[in-house]
From TrEMBL:
It holds the Pfam family SusD-like_3. Residues 21-218 form the SusD-like N-terminal domain. Keywords: Cell outer membrane, Membrane, Signal. GO terms for cellular component: cell outer membrane. It comes from Pedobacter hiemivivus. Its main location: membrane. CDD domains: SusD. Belongs to the SusD family. This is RagB/SusD family nutrient uptake outer membrane protein.
Length: 517
């Protein structure tokens, strides 16, 4: 049996495109790296293989924004029968979702390592070679970011697999892993294309890398790595995105997500998306669960209008009540005011604030037909310009307090949402108050985009937030919905990181389990 971390690249370089825009070919047959990488086309195909794990169910095809992101103060699993699993913090190291995410990250890393080791083989345009090198470096770093963010200390492997029998590798301290992540991303940043050159969001651009580096640096400045010096770097990278003038906010908030269902690119706002296509019919598909599992309940007899929805997630009343401005358009988009049991919507009443569904991605806007009951072709956003502005405001406040620069970035996001801006008599002068405003604004703006757990952990308030949420549910929710308190009741210190998968521990004798698992 081969170790999870060491899937040989000869089985992993095939062009199973997760990014439909830049490669539209069928998978090739088995190829050895010895005979591969001889042409520019083969190198491009190998790069597509590096992107490919991002679209799997283990990652952004399903679990990164569903099971691995259900169980926080924006949304909770709607099924009362769910008493075990990641959504309610009752699982073991043998959980398949945990193991599959680990495996997919390391497969992406192995593919990147093999491509980087062979990138100089073919005769090709040097600008294209640099661009491919840059994308592969960034993707390797991003897979490591997902690993370090979810597991902490992990094995750091930067060269191709030589032997599948060499299985015993110790974990590197998370600080070393994060340092390597930044090193790779900084090297990649000047090599890749600009967003304007690409004209679509399925491939990483120069400003995408800068924006993700701001996210990485804020993570390192937070409780997991506790390196406040990285705040300066977070501000620097966020400002680089802003100063590039490549990006701006879409004037219509809901249109961002309609575009993702309609397969329309908005490179100004939606800086990096994982692209999906097809409806599960035929051989050429890479579908997701966006809008299907954690979207609006639609269980009527007609699955085409609007499209089936499981309604597997309830938005919390805490999230609903965070939208304190009546004019804020984000509330009734992110939290659906209706559901379907027939082809026509049924509106929630004004008092039904405890069992509403996320509405960010609405299946009625999908263009691929016939619509599947279980999957969609809607793209998932990894990075938006609004996120960059909020990261800029957060880093500026932590370094210098609530300056005009911090207010300007925050107000730009709020103005687009038609929420009141902090100006004149409402300007914020206290750093602690501004910090809380940013934390709430990120919930309002980025709800259900698989960032809330990440944010709460780096702020060091994940457990306390969930405990407070459970107390609120027990005290104020209707009796039939108080089962939603289970996640907060179960959460403990060990849940700040995932357990090392059981299979990995059985094969790699040098690795140690995370604390309390």
């Amino acid at each position: 049996m081969k170790k999870i971390i060491y899937i040989l690249i000869i089985t992993a370089i095939f062009p199973l495109a997760s990014c439909k825009k830049f490669l539209d070919v069928a998978p090739t047959d088995f190829l050895s790296p010895i005979n591969y990488y001889s042409t520019e086309t083969e190198v491009e195909n190998a790069l597509t293989g590096v992107y490919d794990p991002l679209g799997r169910e283990a990652m952004y095809g399903r679990y990164l924004f569903t099971t691995l992101a259900y169980g926080n103060d924006e949304g909770l699993r709607s099924a009362s029968a769910t008493t075990t699993g990641l959504e309610v913090f009752n699982y073991t190291p043998s959980d398949g979702i945990v193991g599959n995410l680990w495996t997919s990250c390391y497969q992406g890393i192995d593919r990147a390592n093999d491509l980087l080791a062979n990138i100089d083989k073919p005769k090709m345009d040097d600008t294209k070679r640099k661009r491919i090198r840059g994308e592969a470096l960034f993707l390797r770093a991003y897979y490591y970011f997902l690993l370090a963010d979810n597991w902490g200390d992990v094995p750091l492997k930067l060269s191709p697999t030589v032997s599948a029998s060499d299985v015993n590798i110790k974990s590197n301290p998370k600080k070393e892993v994060f340092d390597q992540i930044l090193k790779d991303m900084e090297t990649a940043e000047p090599l890749v294309s600009t967003s304007t050159e690409l004209k679509f969001s399925g491939r990483v651009s120069k400003t995408t890398i800068e924006g993700i580096m701001a996210r990485v640096c804020l993570t390192m400045a937070g409780s997991q790595v506790n390196d406040p010096s990285k705040l300066n770097d977070a501000l620097k990278w966020a400002e680089k995105v802003q100063q590039s003038k490549e990006h701006s906010l879409n004037p219509d908030y809901k249109q961002i997500f309609i575009n993702q269902s309609k397969d329309l690119y908005d490179v100004k706002e939606s800086m990096w998306e994982i692209e999906f296509y097809g409806n599960g019919i035929g051989s050429y598909n890479e579908t997701s669960w966006v809008g299907v599992w954690g979207g609006i309940l639609a269980s009527g007899p007609d699955l085409q209008t609007p499209g089936y929805g499981y309604g597997a997630l309830y938005a919390t009343n805490k999230l609903y009540n965070l939208y304190t401005d009546a004019a804020d358009v984000r509330r009734d988009w992110n939290i659906s005011p209706y559901y379907f049991t027939t082809t026509k919507p049924t509106n929630f009443t004004a008092t039904q604030l405890y069992n509403r569904y996320p509405g960010k991605w609405r299946r009625e806007y999908e263009v691929v037909t016939p619509k599947s009951k279980n999957v969609s072709s809607t793209n998932f956003p990894v990075l938006r310009y609004a996120d960059v502005l909020l990261m800029l405001a957060e880093a500026e406040n932590e370094l210098n307090g609530p300056t005009q620069k911090a207010h300007d970035a925050l107000n730009e996001v709020r103005a687009r949402a038609h929420a009141s801006e902090f100006k004149g008599a409402t300007i914020i002068t206290d750093k602690i108050i501004f910090r809380q405003v940013i934390q709430d604004e990120r919930a309002r703006e980025l709800a259900f985009e698989a960032l809330r757990d990440h944010d709460l952990k780096r702020w060091g308030i994940f457990i306390s937030t969930m405990k407070d949420l459970s107390k609120n549910i027990t005290a104020s929710y209707p009796a039939n919905l108080r089962f939603l308190a289970l996640a907060g009741n179960n959460i403990a210190e060990r849940h700040l990181y995932l357990p090392i998968p059981s299979l990995e521990l059985s094969l790699n004798k040098a690795i140690k389990q995370n604390p309390n698992w």
